[in-house]
Amino acid sequence: MLGDCLENVRKSVPLVHNITNYVTVNDVANVLLACGGSPIMSDEPEDVEDITSICGGLNINIGTLNQSSIKGMFLAGKKANELGHKVLLDPVGAGASALRTNTAVKLMDEIKFTVIRGNISEIKTLALGSGTTKGVDADVADAVTEETLDSAVAFVKSFAKETGAVVAITGAIDLVADAEKCYVIRNGRPEMGKITGTGCQLSGMMTAFLVANPDNILEGAAAAVCTMGLAGEIGWNNMKPEDGNSTYRNRIIDAIFNMDKETLDKGAKYEVR
Amino acid sequence: MLGDCLENVRKSVPLVHNITNYVTVNDVANVLLACGGSPIMSDEPEDVEDITSICGGLNINIGTLNQSSIKGMFLAGKKANELGHKVLLDPVGAGASALRTNTAVKLMDEIKFTVIRGNISEIKTLALGSGTTKGVDADVADAVTEETLDSAVAFVKSFAKETGAVVAITGAIDLVADAEKCYVIRNGRPEMGKITGTGCQLSGMMTAFLVANPDNILEGAAAAVCTMGLAGEIGWNNMKPEDGNSTYRNRIIDAIFNMDKETLDKGAKYEVR
Amino acid sequence: MLGDCLENVRKSVPLVHNITNYVTVNDVANVLLACGGSPIMSDEPEDVEDITSICGGLNINIGTLNQSSIKGMFLAGKKANELGHKVLLDPVGAGASALRTNTAVKLMDEIKFTVIRGNISEIKTLALGSGTTKGVDADVADAVTEETLDSAVAFVKSFAKETGAVVAITGAIDLVADAEKCYVIRNGRPEMGKITGTGCQLSGMMTAFLVANPDNILEGAAAAVCTMGLAGEIGWNNMKPEDGNSTYRNRIIDAIFNMDKETLDKGAKYEVR
Asked: pTM for the whole thing?
């Protein structure tokens, strides 16, 4: 069934507006193309409303936010809400600076997000609503492990209920939940953490999955997570001894490009709690 | 003869100033190096006049324009005109937002472009001079096909005459024309559309070809288009079953790096109308 | 002994704050991950002090400076100085525009740099303190060669003494010096110049080496230069006939990812003068 979500992306070629950081933006664009979507990037306040209007989804990533792009995020987000578009928040570095934390919290106050996707530290920061500067590891519970899984599942469901958004926490074990239901996903490889931007790439791709699966948001988000993780596994299998993280980046995007419904359905490792 | 244009780039190592989007800028730089040119990027208004002064050509791409970089485009463009440098416009997303359309139109009003290069939608938007927001597919005639080729050739020649620039429309069939003469080019692969920024890369590389072939602008522009398309073919032939769009991106740039005069002359597929 | 410097990076995983250009930023991030560090990018003035506070080192690269990021550089640099962090300056294009030259000079006036790393042209510009616009090749002595080596070594030691920073001049022969001692390094390949941003990558990686080797700054900087150059050699050996500069970029980062203490100690080619 997750394979259908991917197939829907390939069939509908959703146009996704990205306000994202300049570090990983090229990979985000290529991942969107790899999964069957179509990317547009624009962060200029005077430009974003027009651009988001012609898209089906908006991906807001605060990885290299600045005063101008922050304005763009609010304008684009409100316009996207008005038009009923899918909107995703990737709160990169929330907790690492006051500006990032406050911007993410304010975005959540003023914009209705379809999905909020981050690592456990970022999501914990948002759940606490803290506006003070924290180190990247401050106020962060242990990573999601088999031992802490029950409480993590309860946490993510509760934050999803509070925000009305699907919440995706990615890490060694990925959690994708609404208030009632949580996908616990065990795809991926630890080496993915040695590539910059796999999280950003997932956020871009996930937005395309949301647009293409409007009646199955939770499942669409989970399918995107499984696609990324499985591509990480397939890409790793294609590595040669002399390859490293730069080639691995290409191998993962390549694996998404070549992913089909059957491969995803067969390779997806998840349970629903 | 197109091969000589490439050879002239390799011999003269033209320095190209790029005001281009942050999505594909790294690939633009590497393509410029691959073809034998040398890239510099700068968009800060206070910096661009100095930078463009030491270059031979200027590549203006509005893909992620903002208020500051727009100012930079006008300042750099005027300075480059003053100095008699080659100047190329890549009106990315003209037609998709009012800001993009209006900026491109105003740039054409105030700056003399050597070449305007875009897809058929963007060029049609500019030819109509429309300042109202359009969807990316609005006001766009059908793609250039064998059936619509005659009228497309007439259109591109007429727009070239009106603007005084060489006009390059790239797509399945590429057209590169001045008022009198149109290169109809059939190099390339459809899979190139699954990589972000092949158009941006071409614009950067083409600017180097213009600088290196000052007395043969039309032919230089056509040679750049053939080089890109042929690299797309060669790159594709080097693909393995597990490769996808990310590796394809590398393969194309690699093929440009390895391209020589003979390969280009033998592989270029064009007619002149 | 240089291998220990690399090992210290892998053991301590230093967090490096980068204010760097948008052309090569993705490669800088992946190189930092490849060598064992961890990258964060932020240039917004309101964000940089918080971000730099949680890091151990700051890499300032003026490659695509703008009014906002320049403010960010000064704020971050001063905060990093306050906190005793390692701070590196990469004066990209100093000499090519008044803004670049003046910004680099002013940064050197107001911020204490641990290392200044650039090509011979950039460093000569800084050593002269000139604030007038120069072409990229103006006021530049011949490249460092075996013939000019003695005077180049004297120059770099003298500039290191004047600034109190370790100075790294990279090129065909690399020099890394403090006032007393100069590493003359002969790793690397000329083809590295056909990839955009190997210098930027080195600056990012070197900052991680400085953080991880606080009591051995000179040696840490030299180890980073040898790592980059040796990776260029190993990466080149892994090239196939159809490969070009884009694949070479990946091969070099891959080689850094796979580099270990023994490989570096065995492959490093240097003498101390």
From this structure: 0.96
